[in-house]
């Protein structure tokens, strides 16, 4: 009888231990699933925040375009757009920036294939093209100022420098952002966080290209016609 009672007691203890381990594992899995769900919500919230930022940028550029259209004829006796704009350089800027949009898309394709080195490489090419665009734009501004066409010369030039300069500032911010992302990718590789950042910077870069198409058409093409 004593042996039977001891055996029943050991069996009962093992069952209780197994139940406790199962409960603990279930709680751990549940906690892990909760953390993963929380991280996904956090990333989605950041993406939503970027879309809000992009909408505010659309409003900003829309206002600047409207201001330029109203003021472009107010030259105050100073140089006109047709006298200032040098289209070969402007066309080169446009080609470079649109090409950088293409290389940005190639970077995203490399990311989707899991090719971290290819992703960083195409981002580097995009940065080089963006830097070339900024260099040409600064050169254009220096040339115009050298001819006496400063931001205070006329309302037309004030609107021009504000609109084109704001776009150039956005491109410069994008370049710094992209370089920082390349460093992060080199250290951490492809993670859900870095993938989201690559998608966001690519979308931002495409947005700047679209804005430049409007700048090229409304400011430069209409200015020399």
Protein described:
The structure is a single chain. Residues 22-31 have low confidence and may be disordered. The chain is elongated, with a radius of gyration of 29 Å. The termini are far apart. The protein is built from 6 helices and no strands. It has helices spanning 2-71, 81-84, 87-112, 116-146, 155-188, 192-224.
Element string (H = helix, E = strand): HHHHHH
Total DSSP helices? 6
Q: What is the number of beta strands? A: 0
Distance between the termini: 110 Å
Q: Which term fits the overall shape?
A: elongated
Helix content: over 70%
Q: Structural class of the secondary structure composition?
A: mainly alpha
Question: What oligomeric state best describes the polypeptide chains here?
Answer: single chain
Report the average pLDDT across residues.
Answer: 86
User: Main beta sheet: strand number and arrangement?
Assistant: none
Q: What is the C-alpha radius of gyration, as a whole number of Å?
A: 29 Å
Low-pLDDT runs: 22-31
Beta-strand level of the residues, as a percent range?
Answer: under 5%
Quick structural summary:
Helices cover 88% and strands 0% of the residues. By secondary structure, it is mainly α.
Which features characterize this protein?
225 residues; mainly alpha; 6 helices; 88% helix
